[in-house]
């Protein structure tokens, strides 16, 4: 008896595979019942399963930084594989996320880590797909899953649609073949089971919340921005120049409904962490606004690529948009666009064509012309400008204007303010970037509402949206 054959027979003997007539949860009558939970009571069988799975992982050349077991039966298997294969383990909680901010993924990981999912049995693939979705939502990459046993009820295709390759040790066809060969079941039982499997192919339900949450993934960042403006009736971007990310997170929960975008400077935060910034990202998804890191990149392409993707901030992991000076030439945009291609979500940038500060050297016709030319050349990635005037009649480019205040004309360090009406009417702004006018007000939410109302009213009037 070969190794796998003997394992199948042992599983039959400990009643992991049962044949007869069983009523499934769905109400369907099934000629086979498979329950691998019993394996935890048989350490030799447990190890043997892990060894076979490990073998497939090695042969398939799976590149992974961590391994995530799906509760419950796959957890002890995953633990053995993690130890043998020397990979850290992650666990996705089984409970739903409806109790506050409790983490769904346990264990340590880095954004963009490649994670292999381990499951005991696959039927439709729904639990693997759900696990992959939670891992991907945390910024991990999931391309492969391994199961011990595939019921061949279309799980493989269902997972392929979710861009997951399914690896497996055994299929139901192989199990039936072994059990007939070693006289555990008759040919007739095997045929009945095969027929049942053929007639009970599955499809993954496309649950509504998933579609809502991932709808934006199939849209370009430009389309998403336009949709947010129209749906939420706001062209207000809050410039959340506060020292604490905790405070920004709290504020964004209150002001989320009023804004189309939240702009931050990650390098002024005294409590930056990837965990917190991903929390802010989650809030931006929930309230449907974009996250803009006002990084003002201004170096050669090669350096900017690293500044965008690496270091403490890993900006490309969470910022939908970044600001970019065009001073170094178009290589800077080329570099960012290239780097953004490895991210699973749409990314884009705003070119800083003009600045609001007194004496800004951007006040030069050639400079502005260069910015517009570059935007047109890289129009997939450049979705607009930071500007103080309307730079082009091409309305696919959004003009975002900082330096907005209803009752102030400037600060002591060169900032110059205009009102929302002046910005939209006189300066051609689509988006109003407002910082201290809101942050320093007594009631931030109420003030944000005022800027939203005034801003969108004038915008609607003048841009005829
Ligand atoms: P304020 O508090 O509304 O003055 O903040 C304006 C924000 O916009 C602040 O974060 C600046 O760094 C940012 N800004 C700007 O004020 N002017 C510019 O030309 C550019 C960015 Br580019």
UniProtKB/TrEMBL annotation:
It comes from Adineta ricciae. Gene3D superfamilies: 3.40.50.2020, Aldolase class I (3.20.20.70). Residues 235-451 form the Orotidine 5'-phosphate decarboxylase domain. The active site is at residues 294, 296, 299. It comes from the Eukaryota. Pathway: Pyrimidine metabolism; UMP biosynthesis via de novo pathway; UMP from orotate: step 1/2; Pyrimidine metabolism; UMP biosynthesis via de novo pathway; UMP from orotate: step 2/2. Keywords: Decarboxylase, Glycosyltransferase, Lyase, Multifunctional enzyme, Pyrimidine biosynthesis, Transferase. In the N-terminal section; belongs to the purine/pyrimidine phosphoribosyltransferase family. Transmembrane segments: none annotated. CDD domains: OMP_decarboxylase_like (cd04725), PRTases_typeI (cd06223). Its EC number is 2.4.2.10, 4.1.1.23. This is Uridine 5'-monophosphate synthase. GO terms for biological process: 'de novo' pyrimidine nucleobase biosynthetic process; 'de novo' UMP biosynthetic process. One of its GO terms (molecular function) is orotate phosphoribosyltransferase activity. SMART domains: OMPdecase. NCBIfam families: pyrE, pyrF. Substrate binds at residues 241, 263, 356, 415, 435-436. SUPFAM superfamilies: PRTase-like (SSF53271), Ribulose-phoshate binding barrel (SSF51366). Pfam families: OMPdecase. The keyword Nucleotidyltransferase does not apply.
């Amino acid at each position: 008896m070969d190794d796998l054959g003997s394992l199948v027979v042992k599983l039959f003997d400990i009643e992991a595979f049962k044949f007869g007539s069983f009523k499934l949860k769905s109400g369907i009558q099934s000629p086979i019942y498979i329950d691998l939970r019993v394996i935890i009571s048989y350490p030799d069988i447990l190890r043997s399963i892990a060894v076979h799975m490990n073998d497939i992982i090695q042969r398939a050349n799976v590149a992974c930084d961590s391994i995530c077991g799906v509760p419950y039966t796959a957890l002890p298997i995953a633990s053995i594989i993690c130890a043998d294969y020397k990979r850290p383990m992650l666990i996705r909680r089984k409970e739903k996320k409806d109790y506050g901010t409790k983490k769904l993924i346990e264990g340590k990981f880095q954004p963009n880590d490649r994670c292999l999912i381990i499951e005991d049995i696959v039927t439709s693939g729904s639990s693997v797909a759900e696990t992959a979705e939670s891992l991907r939502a945390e910024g991990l990459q999931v391309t492969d899953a391994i199961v011990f046993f595939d019921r061949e009820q279309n799980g493989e295709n269902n997972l392929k649609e979710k861009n997951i390759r399914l690896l497996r040790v055994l299929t139901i066809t192989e199990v039936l073949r072994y059990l007939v060969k070693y006289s555990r079941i008759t040919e007739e039982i095997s045929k009945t089971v095969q027929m049942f499997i053929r007639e009970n192919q599955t499809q993954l339900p496309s649950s509504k919340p998933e579609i809502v949450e991932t709808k934006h993934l199939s849209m370009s960042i430009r389309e998403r921005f336009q949709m947010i403006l129209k749906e939420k009736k706001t062209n207000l971007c809050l410039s959340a120049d506060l020292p604490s990310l905790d405070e920004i997170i709290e504020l964004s929960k209150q002001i989320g409904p009023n804004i189309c975008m939240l702009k931050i400077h990650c390098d002024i935060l005294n409590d930056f962490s990837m965990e917190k910034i991903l929390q802010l990202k989650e809030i931006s998804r929930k309230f449907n606004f974009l996250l803009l890191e006002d990084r003002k990149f201004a170096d050669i392409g090669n350096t900017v690529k690293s500044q965008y993707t690496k270091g403490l901030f890993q900006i490309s992991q969470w910022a939908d948009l970044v600001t970019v000076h065009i001073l170094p030439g178009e290589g800077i945009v080329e570099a960012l666009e290239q780097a953004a291609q490895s991210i699973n979500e749409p990314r884009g940038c705003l070119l800083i064509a003009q600045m609001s500060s007194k004496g800004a050297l951007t006040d030069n016709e050639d400079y502005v012309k260069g910015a517009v030319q570059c935007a047109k050349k890289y129009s997939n990635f450049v979705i607009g400008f930071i500007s103080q005037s309307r730079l082009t009649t091409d309305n696919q480019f959004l003009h975002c204007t900082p330096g907005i205040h209803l009752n102030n004309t400037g600060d002591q360090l060169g900032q110059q303010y205009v009102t929302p009406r002046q910005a939209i009417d006189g300066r051609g702004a689509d988006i109003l970037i407002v910082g201290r006018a809101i942050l320093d007000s007594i009631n931030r939410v109420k003030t944000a509402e005022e800027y939203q109302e005034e801003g969108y009213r004038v915008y609607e009037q003048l841009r005829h949206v």
